[in-house]
Amino acid sequence: MSGSTYGTIFRISTWGESHGRGLGVVIDGCPAGLPLSTDDIQRFLDRRRPGQSRYATRRSEADQAEILSGVFEGYTTGTPISVLVQNQDQRSRDYGNIKECYRPGHADYTFDTKYGFRDYRGGGRSSGRETIGRTAGGAVACKFLESLGIQFHTYTRSIGDIYIPESDICFDHILQNSLYMPNNHYAQKAMDFLEDCIKNKDSAGGILECVIDGIPAGIGEPVFEKLDASLAKAFMSIGAVKGVEIGDGFAAASSTGSQNNDSLISREGQIQKGSNHAGGILGGISDGSRITIRAAVKPTPSIAQEQHTITKSLENTSLVIAGRHDPVIVPRAVVVAEAMAALTIADLLLINMSSRLDRIIDFYNN
Amino acid sequence: MSGSTYGTIFRISTWGESHGRGLGVVIDGCPAGLPLSTDDIQRFLDRRRPGQSRYATRRSEADQAEILSGVFEGYTTGTPISVLVQNQDQRSRDYGNIKECYRPGHADYTFDTKYGFRDYRGGGRSSGRETIGRTAGGAVACKFLESLGIQFHTYTRSIGDIYIPESDICFDHILQNSLYMPNNHYAQKAMDFLEDCIKNKDSAGGILECVIDGIPAGIGEPVFEKLDASLAKAFMSIGAVKGVEIGDGFAAASSTGSQNNDSLISREGQIQKGSNHAGGILGGISDGSRITIRAAVKPTPSIAQEQHTITKSLENTSLVIAGRHDPVIVPRAVVVAEAMAALTIADLLLINMSSRLDRIIDFYNN
Amino acid sequence: MSGSTYGTIFRISTWGESHGRGLGVVIDGCPAGLPLSTDDIQRFLDRRRPGQSRYATRRSEADQAEILSGVFEGYTTGTPISVLVQNQDQRSRDYGNIKECYRPGHADYTFDTKYGFRDYRGGGRSSGRETIGRTAGGAVACKFLESLGIQFHTYTRSIGDIYIPESDICFDHILQNSLYMPNNHYAQKAMDFLEDCIKNKDSAGGILECVIDGIPAGIGEPVFEKLDASLAKAFMSIGAVKGVEIGDGFAAASSTGSQNNDSLISREGQIQKGSNHAGGILGGISDGSRITIRAAVKPTPSIAQEQHTITKSLENTSLVIAGRHDPVIVPRAVVVAEAMAALTIADLLLINMSSRLDRIIDFYNN
Amino acid sequence: MSGSTYGTIFRISTWGESHGRGLGVVIDGCPAGLPLSTDDIQRFLDRRRPGQSRYATRRSEADQAEILSGVFEGYTTGTPISVLVQNQDQRSRDYGNIKECYRPGHADYTFDTKYGFRDYRGGGRSSGRETIGRTAGGAVACKFLESLGIQFHTYTRSIGDIYIPESDICFDHILQNSLYMPNNHYAQKAMDFLEDCIKNKDSAGGILECVIDGIPAGIGEPVFEKLDASLAKAFMSIGAVKGVEIGDGFAAASSTGSQNNDSLISREGQIQKGSNHAGGILGGISDGSRITIRAAVKPTPSIAQEQHTITKSLENTSLVIAGRHDPVIVPRAVVVAEAMAALTIADLLLINMSSRLDRIIDFYNN
């Protein structure tokens, strides 16, 4: 099925494998007139690019984005924007030993069962490199949303047990450390922890968080295309994500109604909220306040320890995974999550334009 | 937008408001030849029906399902199945006092902003009664999946801080207590806790869990229509759900790769897993083992305490919500979650039929 | 598959069989704030209602529409509008003799092959009564489009060889004769011809035409969701339609570029066209001028003559179709075509709102 | 909107402008295990490639297809297949004079109105070169359908008034003349006619026809995703197509029921039809016999005569179109139509697999 397409009005279709000719995305439905350059996309790709720190795979890829269509004289034309990133360092010999057996925690077995065979080189389509297409698409969605005053901050909230308390979050720090943590002190602790992981031939998980400001009230479509439901799918579609929560999330389950309800207050003609346990979404529709969403990311499944597994011919065996792998996925997933949030919101924001007759009449009569 | 439609091949479109003429669903794409009666649907509706216990709203509705189309001589015909549930006890006078002000924790404000006005009677479309349509649709999806040997167990895992440990879960108990908890002892503790909530004019949240057995490996479409991503959307689309997790979920974030990876083992020609931290899904595709998914449900926002809020004309006010409300939503959301899981899996299971050329050729040559 | 859903933003899902409990439609994505009553829908249903003239089936159905949801205090709320029409005169004994054999020109054989069996009573889902749902949905779309100044005229252009020349079309006549022809004189000739058909136990075909004024330029999405492509699908989805053309249609195939191109002229700051061979659509996008679309409708397949056919068990047999059937389908298909055109245009008109960044910024900043 | 995506399960997303970096397609949902090489795609592209005869634009493009993903060791993997065709001969100076004015019969004005500006070089996205993506996608769909025994013959049925009678159609001739006519004698007459057109600085239209054999009965989804409705949209989405008909098409409108009904006959346990006026489709579902579909193609709008038109600033002007243009579009549209038919049928054929419970149970139990 066409599982590589995302969105209804603002829509992307991604393609590409870890060790194929390249990866890319077709962005369809981006409004005409948006200033767009390769740099806008490259900035996003650089945030997920490998080889940048000790805590990310050392595969060396420039991941240079090329825009092949949909932009004319510096502006989007309303027609599909095709973005191409060519693979350079494919070093497929590293993966020869996993051709015949299934890596634990990976999609090798499930792909083989579903499709009858698989492109085993570097995980093929199930590789983390798959996210290049959606990250490029998200960069365009972000540029579009910024023109409406919408801002994103996405970062690593925790790695292993090292969790940054609300009060210690400092957005300025996010780009100051290679883990994209909003507190350099916690980032240093996390790096120490990751050193231990590497020493133990092990890997770590963590939680990423995305906060979004400036979203107008009214975005999200009851009852199945709710904003929170769509964001949950967006985040859970990122490989290695195992949980998603909005606002207080799982903590709300052990709260009470009197604690969890956000009171509404009128101040000088403006609506304010006494708190934001809801994370900016009520009934699946944005309420105009900050949106908060978190995702739990599992530890990198590729570890250097010996693991028990089976071969394609169902023989028991053991496996040591060589190659270049991140000891933690979270930092590189941060930009992917931001991309997915932006794509989701861009789509629902365009869809929301048709919710009220009076505004449609205004639109067509001007 | 058409936010009330769910699914691609097996698709439902729901409709109806809390205090309108009725609620219902059109189920399109259900395969022909499935034996189906009103009873199959009624069994599901009865699990979410109000007025059944002290811990659920005392609104009295029979919620009788009528099948209006798509079934002939006891079997589905492959054409749309229309199910209607007529509203009886509409008692709209109870809601008169919320016509002009916005209830905290409800969608009143967001609906008004999005649509310009709202059907304020009982929450209109944002009422919990909206789930009647999807529950009826899910009943049909479940019947279809059962014919393929797929089984669901869905239950209340926790209420407030009362959480049932893995080892104490007993499926047989689920239908033995009005909270749908898989342990009668914990259910009693939860009931005591709810008594306190009621006494305090407050409400409680909780966690529901759905485990699914018998799903063939291969279900789910990379990279955006993954099984886990689709289930996350399905669950998060249920009103009051604020978080979703698969397998170990958020716990995986503080685990390590060596702990979290599930080893594969071959035993007498069968594939087994040494553990199931992944919750039955790898790379977004089912691996043939048990699928586990949990959702965090916030406390009922309608509480009898006085709350601060604003009117439609932006004046500060206070509100006491009368009417009939559940002190906890989880037990009645259990069947809704099962319905959404079934709808999601039915759809992806049908879509998966087109994944392999050899099987398509077999299909059309027989 | 979910073949009974039509549209992306303005979307309908229809259901119902000829001899089931009833038929209906769920209209989702209709903007909030549209005044809507049962009368708006009834007016459309009455135009396709049986039993109104000698040239339409004498089955007697009131076809009363009931609105079950989505309208509050006389206005649409933005939530799904469920419309129900209950069947009354089901007289299924008439159809007993076609249970075991396949009627030529009908979908009996194809339904049986596709679904394994069929609801044979009156054609089941393949009956002309299926169009009740889409007609009701189209009535709502029309009401919405009228509020934007868009007007439809739909009529029978020809029956058999009796074709009304362009210069003899008079919109005022359409509702003055039971064939919905825009010229009473030609209508009389057509009635005489139909008398002959009835006498010969035969039936007639014809062409219907829909002209639409007031559509703003810019509607339609290149390259697959073009306005003309979408209209073609809309019309061809009506049972018995075998051909569709836009503007000059098939006549353009034997024209030349110099004849067929419509020149553009500027008059007092307004754009005009020297001709309208294109039928108001260029590159799949409306150009602001009148849209013209025609559909060829085959003769009613149910005829009183003896016909050769086969039984379900593949035995040769002959069949005489009793029951109540239209000697010509075109007049009753007129309103169905108008409904489909309105649904198509409503959807694309809403989608077009997201085409330009400047207009989106205006929309959200006001 | 995402108008550049086509299909539900077998889905393509196309991109590219006449004078951009290139054009291409992402094919998603192609079943895994199909042998596929660049040659399979190139064969289709070569049939629409410019510069091949006197009657097609002399723009010189190799139109070399590159497969960038989705194929591994010669077989499709079930993941998206990205195909790229780089533009070489872009000669944009030819189009400088149409930057400021609107060509009659082209989409210049409608694109400018919809998007606020346009890529005027060679028509941008509204150029005939847009069809490269869909043709490449259709090549893959055709390869897939051939593996199921489905065969296509597509050809020019008429140019101007030169129409080949049924009895003179000879499939063997199709590839023997540059007009893709199934009769070399008529092709010669058409060439003579086109010479006159060129001499008169004019252009011609025509009709293309596609016949499809080997389609199993049961393909097509009532009531909106009917096979004929979907084919109508597919064909009408091709630039310059103004009409579509199935089977007898418009001729059926002046036929009678007794003439137009196809009788069913049983011969040695096989179902046969006494005639095929229906063109192989009843009730929107294939009946197992030959499918016939025709499209009317308007004359090339780019002609060398002086034409009246307006500038972007609404001034009257006259225009002579230089550059390289086909005197007739039909021959190059033939392969595009075949591609669209194949894409449509591939999608509906996969969707049909979910129509019957018994067959689904068989599928998953084997």
Concise description?
4 copies of one chain form a homotetramer. In chain A, about 25% of the residues lie in helices and about 20% in strands. Chain A contains 8 helices and 18 strands.
Spatial separation of the terminal alpha carbons of chain A: 41 Å
Helix content of chain A: 25-40%
Largest sheet of chain A: 5 strands, antiparallel
Order of helix and strand elements from N to C terminus of chain A:
EEEHEEEEHHEEHEHEHEEEEEEEHH
Q: Tell me, what's the shape of chain A? A: globular
Query: Which chains have the largest interface?
Result: A-B, 116 and 116 residues
Strands of chain A, count: 18
Low-confidence spans of chain A: none
Description of the structure:
Four copies of one chain form a homotetramer. Chain A has 366 residues and is of the alpha+beta class. The first copy, chain A, is 26% helix and 22% strand. Chain A has a five-stranded antiparallel beta sheet, covered by helices on one side. In chain A, helix 1 packs across helix 3, helix 1 crosses helix 7 (330-351) and helix 3 crosses helix 7. Strand 11 (241-246) of chain A pairs antiparallel with strand 11 of chain B.
